[in-house]
Design goal:
By secondary structure, the protein is α/β, with parallel strands linked by helices. It has 2 domains: 221 residues, P-loop containing nucleotide triphosphate hydrolases (Rossmann fold), CATH 3.40.50.300; 64 residues, no CATH class. Helix content is 31%, strand content 23%. It contains 12 helices and 14 strands. The strands form 3 sheets. Strands 6-7-8-3-9-10-12-11 form an 8-stranded mixed sheet, with helices on both faces. The chain has a 4-stranded antiparallel sheet with strand order 2-1-4-5, covered by helices on one side. The radius of gyration is 21 Å and the shape is globular. The two termini are 42 Å apart. The C terminus is likely disordered. Bound molecules: iron/sulfur cluster.
């Protein structure tokens, strides 16, 4: 890894509805390093997909308000780009894979032609060269009989194969950044593992940085080097994978870890869901966004937003439990993922 390829600073995004303003992303900052996979994790409605779409300028223009912030790529703020400038970036420099492959594929166009389209748009190559390259790409992502499948339509592929096609299109022009928004959520577990392996392999070959949006920590463990945990439009904890899985400090991260199936546990070990539901982001108050669901909530949590505490060069958390006046709260000894408890001695 070397250098920052994308840097998001103090990004705040709202949506206007007929009688509300929804504060979907509330002042987030993070960086993506060259060649790394950064996972953005959180429940649905946490703002992770909105963040991803804002980087591609795919949010509905009429209802979206970018209140402030910047998304800097190669020294330029993408938020200032015109639609035409963005066209040159999308697919060539930054690509996106969505949960549902049919969102990206045209059901009425042959798959080969769809792969060729992106290539011809961004590269000065002949139709013949684009055909050859598209065929190679389909073979590369594991589509059997790639030559024949070039002339098949998306509905003739299984869900997993369609997602492979989408990945082929996304990586066709060797983008610097691939944003993958729940890329395997709609697929069954075996296919899920194959697609994740494929993405990892291709990342090595193409040297792309991946921003992986997911609600699934098992996917994170398999794919990412760093993790940002989002809740109610804010990043509440960020760290390298080991810090998040073994040294997490935010009660919401503990909750996510406790609700994740663990490989080493045998039998029917019940998963512990996070109680309560995410807050109504049209009515956010001061204070910690997790306060209503947090087992360790204190008075200060309702009144003031916790600042970030830096725990290492790579690990930071926004929680009042890091204040030196707070009770000591930590992981139960021997439990490596999930679950905080209050130390009774404090
Ligand atoms: Fe819980 Fe308070 Fe920490 Fe928020 S700041 S996560 S409410 S302890």
């Amino acid at each position: 890894m070397s250098g920052t390829i994308l840097s998001v600073h103090d990004l705040e995004i709202s949506f206007r509805t007929h009688n509300h303003v929804i504060h979907a992303v509330r002042g987030i900052s993070f960086v993506l390093q060259e060649g790394e996979t950064l996972a953005i994790v959180g429940e649905s409605g946490s703002g992770k997909s909105v963040t991803a779409k804002s980087m591609m300028k795919l949010l509905p223009k009429r209802s979206t308000l970018i209140n402030h912030g910047s998304i800097v790529y190669k020294g330029q703020d993408l938020l200032q780009y015109t639609a035409r400038e963005m066209e040159k970036i999308r697919g060539k420099e930054i690509s996106m894979v969505f949960q549902d492959p049919m969102t990206s594929l045209n059901p009425t166009m042959k798959v080969g032609k769809q792969v060729m389209e992106g290539l011809r748009k961004h590269q000065q190559i002949s139709k013949r060269q684009a055909y050859e390259r598209a065929r190679e790409l389909l073979a590369l992502v594991g589509i059997p009989n790639a030559t024949e499948r070039m002339s098949a339509f998306p509905h003739e592929f299984s869900g997993g194969m369609r997602q492979r096609v989408v990945i082929a299109i996304a990586l066709a022009c060797h983008p610097k950044i691939l944003i993958a928004d729940e890329p395997t959520t709609a697929l069954d577990v075996t296919i899920q593992a194959q697609i994740l392996d494929l993405m990892k392999d291709l990342q090595q070959q193409v040297k792309t940085s991946i921003m992986l949006i997911t609600h699934d920590l098992a996917v994170v463990a398999n794919m990412a080097q760093r993790v940002a945990v989002m809740y109610a439009g804010e990043i509440v904890e960020t760290g390298v994978v080991n810090e998040i899985f073994y040294k997490a400090k935010h009660p919401y991260t503990w909750g996510l870890l406790q609700s994740m199936p663990k490989m080493h546990q045998k039998g029917n070990v019940p998963l512990i869901p996070i109680s309560g539901s995410p807050p109504d982001i049209s009515k956010m108050h001061e204070g910690c966004p997790f306060a209503a669901r947090c087992p360790y909530v204190m008075k200060v949590c309702h009144d003031y937003k916790p600042a970030y505490t830096t725990l290492s060069d790579t690990h930071s958390v926004a929680c009042w439990l890091q204040d030196k006046r707070a009770p000591t709260v930590g992981h139960p000894v021997g439990v490596t993922s999930g679950g905080g408890h209050v130390d009774e001695n404090h």
